[in-house]
Amino acid sequence: MHFSGLARIIMKITVKIIIQILFVYSLNAWSFTESKDKETISIAAIDWCPQICPKDERNGYILDLVKKVFSDNQYQLEVQFYPWSRAIKMVREGKLDALLAPAKAEAPTLIYPDNEVGAQKMCFFTLSNSKWQYTGLTSLTDQQIGIGKDTSIEELNSYLITHPEQFQFQPYIGRYVEQSFRKLSKGRIDSFLFTYNTTKFELTRLKKWHKVRSAGCVNTAKVYLAFSPKIDEQKRSRLIKEFNMRSNQLFKHGAESNIMKNYGLNSWR
User: Which residues pair with residue 21 across a beta bridge?
Assistant: First the structure.
């Protein structure tokens, strides 16, 4: 009887541990089908709502589009979420198949298909009472600017390299916008750079959007589902061919526009 009671206790503990492990894994990876007959595409992504939304009921318009591209075929998606720099590194090293969703300047060694999955407009944000406006390189004099590590700011990339003392880098994680707003409020930076849609989404959620203003934007850059150069070449070629074919069909019929309407946004195309 004593052994039987001990066995039941051990079994309960074991089951509890297994449940906890499965729960933790579910917070960091999404699998969009349970079919064992399909080939898995492992994708690294970030918390980047409304483009990619791991914590919301809706997946985000970029992830919705990618899911639609690979629906009704032999592939299944497994999306794993990381800080941006780590996501780039893991795909670059071939630990995962693809990255969602870099501009080409952010991960130049990855392999890119013909079509993008969205576009990002990088903008400066200041406090609402600030009179400063970005009008070109000369307007950046004496500015202290917050920026996410490994993010591309297009025509300002060269300026960043030659004037690193004007930029305060921090890892891009889900709290990047909130942390940047705090630094802005405390006067530690004059402005911060990030994508317009996500900054508006996050600060609206925090009821802080009215306290900032967009002070000008740099060029808009297309973003992609980019593939690792280190994965099996035949697999990568199949995935890119499938992506190009299906995305061409979807764009031809305006699928991305219909998806973005669900988020109150207009198509970048």
Answer: none
Query: Looking at domain 27-117+224-261, does it have CATH number 3.40.50.970?
Result: no
75-81 and 39-45 beta bridge pairing:
parallel
Q: Which two tokens stand for residue 115?
A: 């079509």
Please identify which residue in the block is written with the tokens 């999404």.
30
Mean pLDDT of 21-33: 47
Q: How far apart are CA 268 and CA 247, in angstroms?
A: 15
The separation between CA 253 and the C-alpha centre of its own chain, rounded to angstroms, equals 25
Return the SS3 of 146: strand
Task: Report phi then psi at 48, rounded to 5.
Answer: -145, 55
Q: 27-117+224-261 and 121-221: same fold? A: yes
Q: Is the pTM of this model over 0.90?
A: no
Query: What is the rounded CA–CA span in Å between residue 221 and residue 23?
Result: 36
Residue with tokens 């990002």: 120
Single-letter amino acid, residue 166: Q
Beta-bridge partner residues of 194: 123
Q: What is the dihedral of CA 26, 29, 35, 39, to 10 degrees?
A: -160
Task: Count the residues in the chain.
Answer: 269
Collect all residues with Cβ–Cβ distance below 8 Å to 68 and sequence separation of at least 6: 250, 255, 259
The predicted-structure confidence for 1-17, as pLDDT tens digits, reads as follows 444 554 554 455 444 44
CATH number of 121-221: 3.40.190.10
- Name the more confident of 5 and 167: 167
Domain spans of the chain, in order of start: 27-117+224-261, 121-221
Q: CA 181, CA 203: separation in Å to the nearest integer?
A: 8
DSSP string, 188-205: S-SEEEEEHHHHHHHHHH
